[in-house]
Design goal:
By secondary structure, the chain is α+β, with helices and mostly antiparallel strands. It has helices at residues 3-6, 8-14, 64-75, 122-135, and strands at residues 21-24, 28-32, 42-46, 80-83, 99-103. It has a single domain, classed as HIT family, subunit A. The longest helix has 14 residues, at 122-135. It catalyses: adenosine 5'-phosphoramidate + H2O = NH4(+) + AMP.
Amino acid sequence: MSKMAACIFCKIVKGDIPSFKLFESDKVLAFLDIQPLSKGHALVIPKHHGAKLVDIPDDSLTELLPVVKKLAVASGAENYNVLQNNGRLAHQEVDHVHFHMIPKPNETEGLGIGWPATATDMEALKKLHADLKAKM
């Protein structure tokens, strides 16, 4: 079985698995997360199958954030997180690109995250900046 045929999100796109659709176009589907972190937690996916963001053609990405924005507005959330993970080490569970829009109504509901920041090293940042800029 191909990865696409086994992909739960591709099955949702095809209608093989029911979902609570909130938005649909030729390239994008948005639906409620069935294991929400808070009321209104929704997923926005490209219909084009790809495991990581770099696997999705640019023309299939153009609508994603505007739809996330519409969901944020529709949810009425004053505070919310937009999350998109790539790979197991980055906590990706489903190998199909997806954006979470997660309302954060209070301290306990919604996404809880830590931010293990490192100390600033200006010389290392200058080198990294030059390396990345050269690759852009």
